[in-house]
Write a structure and sequence with these properties.
The chain is mainly α and 213 residues long. The protein is built from 6 helices and 4 strands; from the N terminus they run ααααββαββα. The structure holds zinc ion. The site of zinc ion has 8 residues, from loops. This is Zinc finger CGNR domain-containing protein.
């Protein structure tokens, strides 16, 4: 049974006061982290999922059953499809599909005064974890598309990773989920280029090898 699920702190980690934008971005970061732990090749332990929820501010006792984590995994696989969408139109279409699946209609709650007023899409404040994950994540990603008019995120281009990541405002589109993946892929591309150079026959050495990325 879920106990409390909301961001209780009214002051953000950067010292600013609570704002809807911060809350939506925090919910989106929590969504990405949960999708990554829940859709790993091997089904995660409840403890691993609880650790991610705690990192993202869930207070109180967190008691996830096997059924809860299975339902969360099913929701995470659907959410992953939104991150895999090639453009804003496709992301919006996939989100519309998820919004149609949510059990509740849009409502405001303050969890009996324990948090700022914020919208929920699950059927009630103690809805099952899987229902909560799908509804709260779809809502946060919907607001991001509304606000930025671009896909809410993407999939890491590293074949050995495949994690989801969030679009970071303006700037060139991101390809990798983390600096770690970007560095690993850059090193691998460099090694492939070196190896290709080594294989060039002497009379072709002046030709620049084409590196496939
Ligand atoms: Zn990655």
């Amino acid at each position: 049974m879920r106990q409390m699920r909301y961001i209780r702190r009214m002051v953000t980690s950067d010292g600013g006061t609570w704002s809807a934008r911060h809350a939506v971005e925090a919910a989106a970061r929590r969504t990405a982290a949960l999708v990554n732990v829940l859709t790993a090749r091997e089904a995660p332990s409840a403890a691993a999922v609880v650790a991610v929820l705690r990192e993202h501010g869930e207070p109180g006792e967190l008691d996830l059953s096997e059924r809860d984590t299975a339902e969360m995994r099913a929701a995470a696989l659907r959410l992953r499809e939104v991150f895999a969408a090639p453009g804003a139109a496709e992301a919006a279409a996939r989100l519309n599909g998820l919004l149609a699946l949510t059990a509740g209609s849009l409502r405001l709650t303050s969890h009996r005064g324990a948090s700022p007023w914020h919208p929920h899409l699950d059927s009630h404040d103690d809805a099952p974890w899987g229902e909560w994950l799908l509804a709260s994540s779809a809502l946060a990603l919907t607001v991001l598309v509304w606000d930025r008019q671009c896909p809410p995120g993407g999939l890491c281009a590293s074949a050995s990773c495949g994690n989801v990541f969030l679009t970071q405002g303006a700037g060139p589109p991101r390809r990798y989920c983390s600096r770690r993946c970007a560095t690993r892929e850059r090193v691998a591309a460099h090694r492939r280029a070196k190896a290709a150079e080594g294989r060039q026959p002497a009379d072709e050495m002046d030709q620049v090898p084409i590196v496939r990325r």
